[in-house]
Amino acid sequence: MDDSLQIRVSLEAIEPEIAAAMSVMTAAFPPEYGEAWSTAQLSSMMRLPGSMLVIGRIGAEAVGFALLRSIVGEAELLLLAVHPEHRGRSHGRRLLDRCMTEAEGSGAQTMFLEVRAGNPAIHLYGKAGFRQYNIRRNYYLGNNGSHYDALSFKIILRHEDS
Asked: What residue ranges define each of the domains in the chain, with the CATH number in brackets?
């Protein structure tokens, strides 16, 4: 069995790709934080210019995904998730790296992301070169009624003169 991660980028809201992302999202995002998007939200975002859905598969199984939007020299990583059964195998880093490559290829010079304080993915973003530049206190409201800080990160993908 081939257990290598295959990554595909979709620029349209194609139902099988949306379904693949949703299967990972429901497993990957703990419900108490209220971070998971609905199918309608994901489909709607994919209809906006510059949106990309990056799906990582092993064989036919979706094991991770990322949602990226690039516009006017900037990119934002909106979502990134790896199915819990497939974590710790560098799949998240490979998805992140592909998003950074796609963002740079679309002309983005800077890439941003926002993440809930305490999210284990913060370590991944730091290792990839993202640096925190802001904190929004009590920005997120979880399904359990708790508030969580949002941490804003960015990375310079390339300088204007490169």
From this structure: 6-156 (3.40.630.30)
